[in-house]
Model the fold of this input.
Amino acid sequence: MVSQSQQAEQRAHLLKERRDAYFAVMRAAHLELQRLEYKRTAQTSKLHELEQYWTTERRIEMSADALIGLFTFGSDEARGFIYEWREATDSDDLGRMNDLADRFRALVKSELKIE
Done:
């Protein structure tokens, strides 16, 4: 039989994993929004600087890690975000991407009970 303290410890661990997964998704989304914004506004030096540090390979790895965490520890609603995000990024719809990022942040705050 699992004790109450072990259950509480397990819940705390799963909550931390969920939080970390959500933060990884938000970091990847923020980076993609910055890239697209720099590209759209012809801020070539900022875009070059960002892409020099965050190479395509690093961005792909970060996105893959974020997806793995999200699909392992995220809620159904949070996982649904990814499908909408892909549609918006495929069409470079910056307005929709910003809206989705705002909605995801609100969901994270709600799920993690952050004021």
Remarks:
- Residues 32 and 89 are 9 Å apart (CA to CA).
- The helical segments are 4-40, 44-53, 56-73, 76-90, 94-111.
